[in-house]
Amino acid sequence: MSDITDAPATADATEVRAWLRECVATYVRLPAEDIDENLPLSEYGLDSVYVLSLCADIEDRYGIEVEPTLLWDHPAIGPISEALAPLLAAR
Amino acid sequence: MTLVDPAGATSPAASPDPIDRLEALFGDAGAAGNPVGREAVLAADADGSMLAAGEDLLDAFGLNAHFVPEALGGRFAGPEELIGVMRAVYRRDPALGLGYGAGSFMAAVNVWTSGSAEQQSWLAGHLLSGGRVACGYHELAHGNDFARAELTALPGPDGQLLVNGRKEVVANLARAGAVVLFARTDAAAGSRSHSQLLLETARLASDTLTRLPRFATVGMRGVPLGGIEFTDCPVPADAVVGTPGHGLETAQRSFQLTRIALPGMTLGLLDTALRTALRGALGRRLYAGTAADLSLSRTVLAEAFADLLLADAFVTVAARAAHTAPGQSTVYASAVKLLVPALVMGAVSRLSELLGSQFYLRAAEQPLFQKLQRDVLPSAFGHASRVSCQAALLPQLPLTVRRTWSAEDGPALPPTTFRPGEPLPPLDFGALKVTAGGRDPLSRSLLQGAERPTGRGEDAELAARASQYATEIRALSAEAARLTPDQLGPAAPPHAFDLTTRWAGVLAAAACLGLWWERPGDGQGPGAEPAWVLAALHRLGVHTGRHHDPLPEPLSEFLYAELLRRHDAGLTFDHARRPTGA
Amino acid sequence: MSADVPEWPTGLAAALADAMAAGAAAGGAFSTARSAALDAAEAFPGEECDLLDASGLARAYVPERLGGVAGGLPELLSALREVARRDVTVAVAHGKTFLGSVSTWVAGTEDQQRALARLVTDENAVVAWGLTERGMGSDLLAGNLTATPEPDGTWRITGEKWPINNATRGRLICVLARTDPAGGPRGFSLFLIDKSALPEGAWEPLPKEPTHGIRGADISGLRLRDAPVPADALVGGVGDGLGIVLRALQLTRTLCAALSLGAGEHALRLVADFAVERALHGTRLALLPLARRVLGRAAASLALADAAALLGGRSAHGLPGEMSAVSATVKAGVPWIVQQAIDDLAELLGARGFLTEQHADGMFQKLERDHRIVAVFDGSTAVNRSLLISQFPLLARLIRKGSYDATGLAAVTGGAPLPELDPAALRLVSRTGCSIVQAVPDTAERITALAAAGELPPRAAELAALLAERTGALADAMAELPPTGRNAPAAAFAVARQFEACFAGAAALHLLAVPCAADRAVVLTAALERCLELLVPGHQAPSDAFEPLVTPLVQPVEEPVR
């Protein structure tokens, strides 16, 4: 099933952070600059079930496997980016 | 429809307007202890009985007078006003509407259409003194297939008419002082073998009657549906209504009025279902807000609102056309009964989804909803099923192609038909015909309107819709022209029946557009915004299978806002936009 | 019949059918008169449940390795559908034990699983599932029932669950409890509570709720007051409750299809019987073309829903990682497809569908009311469509790529024995999308080849091509929607509905691609035709498209003698 992802060549925590911010902004229909990286995503109306779809976006973009509950344990963009860093490094 | 008028300044109880008076009598449905309020209505339903306080109220109001023509001392001037009055009853309790009133009206139209002066005068007196008349048509084995009715009224050995057979599932049969009985009066097959009998039940020989047990139903539980079996029951010769053997014709002519009126009344049920669902959605906490904050909920509510406006437009035009084109009323009545009940049932069903599990709980915040969901069921088959209306329209298609759609001429409906509030010519029962003779002035109104020059402030999108429906008439005409004689009866292929649904769709569109084109010129009031027409036509596309799309967001938001305004102001959701305590 | 054809397991269902028929024939449990009387009196179908207990239905709620039946989720679907064909209320009342148990199968320890399996199979213990609370709607994280740890590792639980199926009758109830006052996705845990082990006063039932349908079912609630619960009542880890529930729901949502299919088949049988006996216009209703279309279309709808349910149930075994998409699709789609069939059949039945004491003791109006709860159970249709919508971006990409899990799909659509259901393989969100839909273009090509070889009707190939085309259009529609959070627009829900129809059509397509008996190919082709009707406004089915499904329904029918 490796053919179903299209990973960018490189990705670091900053790139991930920026990209997640765009993602969340699209989902909640707000400008990216209005998204606070440390505010829980649930504050933007992305509840626990909905962040699961964000997990699929992450997997898809970076070609990594993410346990969806990672987004429950790290409920804001900043912490998510930190948590993803080792996974990205291990690609 | 953007403007919401403040409630009338005059005291409604003293109002000359019967609907205002009725609303005042019913009061606030949500008020604790209201004997005709929601709690009382639900209790009567649970008990399977008529709402007694409601029947007393309607006695005091004199509802029966609305079933009796003005010429006979009553207040019935035509279906439009009756629909308005009965809709007020259906808003409170559909079982009260059907069980107290609609049944009597269905029976009475037979007599108003074909009865002798004596019969009319007697029945008028009976109704005006508070009596009921049961409509004795239904036999379980034959349903709406009247022509197969088996109950007979044939001369006995001494020449006196003797009634034999049974009628089943008839409202008020056990308690009505009179009954109109549909009977076979000639053993021969064909269309001249049945007659109606107007009978005073107290004068029937009791030893020739067997009362059948009441029929229990899932909805309209309070309506007492009875049955009766006759064995050599003698009836007077002058009980026959109209020319002996002309019963099928009388039914087909007189029931045009009820086929328009009943669906029109049922819109009161939808009005309350919509209000109940909205109330539920506004009150139902969901995640960070209420169910009404969700885009999907608003769309579902807006769509049901548009359905109601669409149905009301069609019913209103058909009801007014009974005055302005009585000879074609047969087509419009069948088309209304074909389209509107299915639309109401679908709307109620979708509204239930808004309430989540609440719609399923009989003791939750909106317990009325599950009652309405059960009460709406008989609109599908009661009086005339969709298929029987299709069967009535189908054989009229070829002649309509030749005389209206191909000929490119023939009169359109008089503009007053599309101007609610304007006086109408008196209703002429005698002018109601069994077939429309190939004339369809409502579709002519659409074809003519579609050719009106645009500009002059006309809405371009609406002009485009009109033009699409004009094209649809041409397409329908081309397909109907190919129908062969063997494709016009009950055994016709499904695609032939489907053409009648398209015809009804065209007529409903013509009604909406006609109301729009003839709207008051002051730019005020409910009809002044094109949004309602666009939304109604969008929904019509769904109901006739042209598309499955949800209402576009600008329309749904517009309608939702209007819905909320009316909800907050306590106004009905139909075109009349009247104050209501439902 | 080929051994390569995926089929419903029939062993347990057949045994249940025999037992129910015997009960009904004797005028006892499952007779229509008794069903009607219980419904009218809002009385619990106790004898019916006893009969099902005696017939071994409870073994279908338990994994095979713990002493349950061999056929896994498809066998359970098949068995519960058989019950629903007779009486949806009983199926709801009895089937709840699976819902109460499934969290333990998903996340319990070996000891917990063995203990529960023994209670369910040996003692027919009734197990309820307590997720919802008053005023919280479908928001699982709004619950206030709270479990507080004691120093000795045990727990104290206080709060209410309502409305809960079998809350009063159930000996056990699996509750979702707040274990972190702050709540959140990690703030809830699951406890399997044995009410019989609670001290006096620690619990009380909340009164039975009167309902629109399933009137006899025990829809009530439970109030716990400082209820002491042992440490081993905790299912999974502290804070794991939401994840376990979401995975458990993937199985129970799929199971709901059994209730719909049973109700739909019951409706079709009642109306077909009526059409055969009804004389009108000098003929029989069942001989009029318009009525035949209604019957045939309803049968095709049921065949379509059947295909979706069969492959949905098998997916739990063969494509467990995709169940987040599959279960939401089946849960929303099957009741939707079946409800339309029931509505059309109701119209044909007319007044008899309204009377509560005529025509098989008013069974039609009962099943119609009963069936409406299915769309609300385990997350309403809107909730499930929302779940599906949240997965659209990935699903759209994978459909466009045409990539799918070929191995898993082969397990689901092939005839080889299914692997045992591995609850650990259920994922909160699918990584590989929905292979059943993504494989449509490839399978459509195989259908074309089979039709060209004369092994399938030519119409099957036409429909396969149409479905492939619509699947592509669906991906476009999905991709065009802006991503949304909870508040998706109505347009997205309309696309979700299309996805459901597409999934069901895809299921029929995969089943057609397996060499099968000619009569099965005819039924599946009609199901595909119905799928296209649902997908494409104005789709013109050939006039005889559903006719092959009508003949077996309405035989024998004779012209009435007049």
UniProtKB/TrEMBL annotation, chain A:
Keywords: Phosphopantetheine, Phosphoprotein
Residue span, Carrier domain: 14-88
PROSITE patterns reported in the protein's UniProt record: CARRIER
SUPFAM superfamilies: ACP-like
Domain of life: Bacteria
Pfam families: PP-binding
InterPro entries: ACP-like_sf (IPR036736), PKS_PP-bd (IPR020806), PP-bd_ACP (IPR009081)
Name assigned to this protein: Acyl carrier protein
Species for this entry: Streptomyces avidinii
Taxon lineage: Bacteria, Bacillati, Actinomycetota, Actinomycetes, Kitasatosporales
TrEMBL record, chain B:
Region (Disordered) location: 440-459
Cofactor or coenzyme needed: FAD
Record keywords: FAD, Flavoprotein
InterPro entries the UniProt entry points to: Acyl-CoA_Oxase/DH_mid-dom_sf, AcylCo_DH-like_C, AcylCo_DH/oxidase_C, AcylCoA_DH/ox_N_sf, AcylCoA_DH/oxidase_NM_dom_sf
Pfam families reported for this sequence: Acyl-CoA_dh_1
Acyl-CoA dehydrogenase/oxidase C-terminal domain boundaries: 245-377
Membership in a protein family: Belongs to the acyl-CoA dehydrogenase family.
Listed PANTHER family: ACYL-COA DEHYDROGENASE, ISOVALERYL-COA DEHYDROGENASE, MITOCHONDRIAL-RELATED
Record-given protein name: Alkylation response protein AidB-like acyl-CoA dehydrogenase
UniProtKB/TrEMBL annotation, chain C:
Keywords from the UniProt entry: FAD, Flavoprotein, Oxidoreductase
Cofactor: FAD
Keyword Flavoprotein set for record: yes
Coiled-coil region list: none
Domain Acyl-CoA dehydrogenase/oxidase C-terminal: residue ranges: 239-388
Residue ranges of every copy of the Acyl-CoA oxidase/dehydrogenase middle domain listed in the record: 129-226
Residue stretches making up the Acyl-CoA dehydrogenase/oxidase N-terminal domain: 35-118
Keyword Flavoprotein: yes
Family note: Belongs to the acyl-CoA dehydrogenase family.
Protein name (Swiss-Prot/TrEMBL): Alkylation response protein AidB-like acyl-CoA dehydrogenase
Species the sequence originates in: Streptomyces avidinii
